[in-house]
Write a structure and sequence with these properties.
Blueprint (H helix, E strand, L loop, with lengths): L1 E10 L3 E4 H5 L6 H8 L3 E4 L5 H12 L8 E7 L10 H9 L5 E5 L5 H16 L3 E9 L9 H4 L4 E11 L5 E8 L7 E3 L19 E3 L1 H23 L8 E4 L4 H11 L10 H4 L6 H11 L8 E8 L3 E8 L1
Parallel strand pairs: 4-5, 4-6, 11-12
Antiparallel strand pairs: 1-7, 2-3, 6-7, 8-13, 9-10, 12-13
């Protein structure tokens, strides 16, 4: 039984904020941002909700698909529109997926990889025919727009992959995920709840992403190398067997480090960060959609998806088209 990704979708908010506009908010400039991150612009959800973006990307992936055959929705996000109903349930309802089981998953920037890993396991054990794995984020909701070290990095968007159970195709060849402890909370975001009548605290900590850039960079470079190597080992392949790599779009330097570690040319790595920035769990499915839209991917090609992020967490999935 092969579980494989057959279709993809992507959605971005209409508002674009370029580096020159960021320079009007904090002490930075276009060249500084590009040199350190590779980012030229990002999309910011002003009118769109997380669900709006998820719906658009999912509709893209569901074109021509009988919706009664979709049995599962795994929705990865750290910026839901609400807590209850969960985003997966809202998406299932609005897409008319009457047969689907739906739930949310939070693994930060590794969320889409964790979602693929989870969906594959549930499809194998329950005989599910099709599954939607969605990564959708409105990271600008939790961005500190006064912190130049983080506000230049993040954007909003959504990506979706349709997984299908195809007995005669190899599909997913291997997967490996890992959770790492983060005792110093080098990458974190708090949660602010309304005060109760019994709350004696005068001030709440702002709900913003905080990040120790140097430590996170070191973690990311090491973790992506570890999960890629383990996925390759489990599949019984070599890096040369891979046709394309689709990494989390966090920082251009991290992508370059991954190419150097594996000894593979950078042109085998899908790079979408220039126009979107870091969109957490949405970045891998959006980049995968970008790759599929190039027309370069052919039947039989092998693709590795890689993610890393808060938790700390990391993972990789290899599948054959």
């Amino acid at each position: 039984m092969g579980i494989t990704i057959t279709k993809t979708g992507k959605a971005l908010p209409s508002k674009i904020v370029n580096n020159e506009e960021m320079a009007a908010l904090v002490d930075t400039n276009h060249d500084w941002i590009v040199e350190r991150t590779g980012i030229h612009q990002r999309h910011v959800a002003v009118k769109e909700t997380n669900l709006d973006l998820a719906m658009q990307s999912a509709e893209d992936a569901l074109k021509g698909v009988d919706r009664t055959t979709v049995d599962l929705v795994v929705f990865s996000t750290i910026t839901p529109d609400r807590l209850v109903p969960c985003m997966g349930s809202l998406l299932k309802r609005d897409l008319g997926l009457s047969q689907a089981v739906a739930f949310d998953l939070n693994a930060a920037c590794s969320g889409f990889i964790f979602g693929i890993w989870t969906a594959e396991a549930l499809m194998r054990t329950n005989g599910y025919r099709k599954a939607l794995v969605v990564g959708a984020e409105c990271l600008t909701r939790i961005t500190n727009w006064e912190d130049r070290g983080t506000c230049v990095l993040f954007g909003d968007g959504a990506g979706t992959a349709l997984l299908e159970n195809k007995e005669n195709e190899p599909g997913i060849l291997s997967s490996f995920i890992k959770s790492y402890d983060d005792p110093k909370e080098v990458l974190a975001c708090g949660m602010v709840y309304p005060k109760t009548p019994f709350d004696m605290e005068e001030e709440k900590i702002p709900m913003h992403i905080t990040m120790s850039g140097t430590q996170v960079f070191k973690f990311a470079v090491n973790a992506i190398g570890e999960v890629m190597q383990e996925a390759i080992k489990r599949a019984g392949l070599t890096y040369k067997d891979m046709d394309y790599f689709v990494p989390h779009q966090a920082n251009m330097r991290i992508i370059q480090a991954a190419a150097q570690k594996t000894g593979q040319p950078l042109d085998k790595f899908q790079i979408s960060i220039k126009d979107t920035g870091n969109v957490s769990s949405a970045s891998v499915p959006m980049a995968l959609h970008d790759l599929m839209m190039t027309g370069k991917v052919k039947k039989g090609h092998k693709i590795m998806l890689m993610g890393f992020g808060g938790g700390l967490s990391a993972g990789a999935v290899i599948y054959q088209v």
